[in-house]
Amino acid sequence: MRHILAFIWKYNFFFLFLLLEVASLILIANYSYYQAATLNRMTYAVTGNIMNTWSGITSYFHLRDENLLLAADNIRLRQQLTREQLNTDTTSVEVADTTGQVQYRYTLAKVISNSTNHRDNYIMLNKGSKQGIIRDMAVINADGVVGTVISTSDNFSWVMSVLNKHSKISGRINRLNQMGTVVWRGGSPMTGTLIDLPAHVKVKIGDTITTSGYSHIFPQDIPIGIVSHIEMEKGDHFYTIEFKFTADLNSLGMVYVIQNLYQAEQQELRKNVIDEE
């Protein structure tokens, strides 16, 4: 112990310098948006490479299970998307609407980091801006909604999980075509909450909740959950509905990142209308 203290004392100016450097970086990240964004991109690149290497090592021992899950994902996605066009990249699927116009592009990505035990949970993917991933793209797997891309580096993406207090997704009771907002209030990673559903709606246990398609991020009819509990305070005009997520967010492997190719046009039109008002 005496030798350790002597070593620290001998190089005290060096350790003080390191401490001041760390403190200055923290202050810059907290008070400068541009510098914070730069530091975040650098952090994503470093941690992304570390996580990617570790994920490659661990996935080697689960290769058979991953292949089975990937095959199941592809089969179920192809069944769900009736009018599809495959491009030359086998990891992407472009989906046409009823007029034959391509609206959504699906890109396959691997989860290399994931948390479910915090109040704000995030996911890292092994695809980034070089692979066409940008901010505000939806992330799903074959079972349902997973999250939304909030930041990217060249080769990695940072995703806000649906298990995050800031996550809000436009959902609907599929049977009734009634809209609400999907949020997560903490606790179990298996359970979410649907709010803002009017009290006159006759919702039932077992009803399916899907995406409404109104957000310009998620396509319509992506599964979110199954209603498990219905509650409404006396005098209130809206339900609070608990549901079980259809996707197992604690065991994510392969996911699809969805780009709405008309998103910019839709947002610009909405902005113009609001500005005119």
Biggest sheet: strand arrangement: 3-4-7-6-5-14
Report the principal-axis shape. Answer: globular
Largest sheet: 6 strands, antiparallel, barrel
Please work out how many helical segments DSSP would assign.
Answer: 5
The figure for the number of domains is 3
CATH class category name of the largest domain: Mainly Beta
CATH superfamily of the largest domain: Rod shape-determining protein MreC, domain 1
Q: Indicate the proportion of strand residues.
A: 25-35%
Structural class: alpha+beta
Low-confidence parts, pLDDT < 50 over ≥5 residues? 82-89
CATH topology of the largest domain: Thrombin, subunit H
Instruction: Give the number of DSSP strands.
Output: 14
Instruction: Report mean pLDDT, rounded to a whole number.
Output: 80
Helicity range: 25-40%
CATH architecture of the largest domain: Beta Barrel
Report how far apart the termini are: 71 Å
Element-by-element helix/strand order: HHHHEEEEEEEEEEEEEEH
